[in-house]
């Protein structure tokens, strides 16, 4: 196990922005390979106990003092290692940001739903904003931007997401959310169970989705453990007021228990006609690299 020492004052000097805080930690951990040692980082930043126990309604909790001089984290042992790593990274931001207010008398209590809130969601209240900030920090810390370039090159494909999840020891859900957030193409990800829509996350430029929770998604025949090819799907079934020139492609990763992850790619031609850059992709059905 790698020994991690960190200068907490230097990290906190960068302010409260989640991305900058995560970057400040990485600045002190130059030369990392493989999974980010999140347990060791938490310990080096004064989290003096990390306990794992079966929890029913929570993914994680943090008990700390108003001064944030020490903290203890509880993680749900029913969740897999990748989720626990994300939860620990998430709790670390509640700990490092002294303006975050605890959500119950006993401390911060975070649910699986909290762990999904992102900056793209409409964040009205303080609790949801705190959770979204903790999630941005968690993924920035677990997948530092300067190591993501190889995964974001070329035509976006779920195989890249799978390798990203493996490389950083994070869940495929966390990896695909990060992929969609940072990839230069217009992407979204749709999570389904038994071909019914659960929830989605969209990249900044992706057109607004019209599909709602529980709706039937016709994504083809599930074959567990496989990734489908790219299929063209009807923009009218998925988008609010799609532009006439918009093409929508879908690729699905079929997981266990009827769950699936579908990557959506929108090709929205500009007003000045078909783009020169993607002309080869048009010939090859979007599968060129
Ligand atoms: Zn939280």
Report what the structure shows.
- 31% of the residues lie in helices and 20% in strands.
- With 289 residues, the chain is an alpha+beta fold.
- The chain folds into 2 domains: 8-145, Arc Repressor Mutant, subunit A, CATH 1.10.10; 148-283.
- The strands form 2 sheets. The chain has a 5-stranded antiparallel beta sheet. The chain has a 4-stranded mixed beta sheet with strand order 1-3-2-4, covered by helices on one side.
- A hairpin with a 4-residue loop joins strand 8 (246-254) and strand 9.
- It is globular and about 55 Å long.
- It starts with 7 loop residues before the first helix and ends in a 6-residue tail after the last helix.
- The mean pLDDT is 91.
- Bound molecules: zinc ion (ZN).
- Zinc ion (ZN) binds at residues 90, 94, 108, 110, 114, 131, 134.
Q: Care to give the gist of this entry?
A:
The chain folds into two domains: 8-145, Arc Repressor Mutant, subunit A, CATH 1.10.10; 148-283. It is built from ten helices and nine strands. It has helices spanning 8-12, 18-27, 38-44, 81-96, 126-142, 149-152, 158-168, 172-182, 235-238, 279-283, and strands spanning 47-53, 60-64, 71-76, 108-110, 186-193, 196-202, 231-233, 246-254, 259-268.
CATH class of the largest domain: Mainly Alpha
- Give me the number of helical elements: 10
Strand order of the largest sheet: 6-5-9-8-7
Question: What hetero molecules are bound to the protein chains?
Answer: zinc ion
Shape: globular
- Strand proportion, as a percent range, falls in 15-25%
**Secondary structure: helix percent:** 25-40%
CATH topology of the largest domain: Arc Repressor Mutant, subunit A
Average of the residue pLDDT scores: 91
Estimated radius of gyration = 20 Å
Low-confidence stretches: none
CATH-level-2 architecture of the largest domain: Orthogonal Bundle
Q: What's the N-to-C terminus distance?
A: 37 Å
Total strands: 9
The SSE order reads: HHHEEEHEHHHHEEEHEEH
**Helix- and strand-based class?**
alpha+beta
How is the biggest beta sheet arranged? 5 strands, antiparallel
Structural domain tally: 2
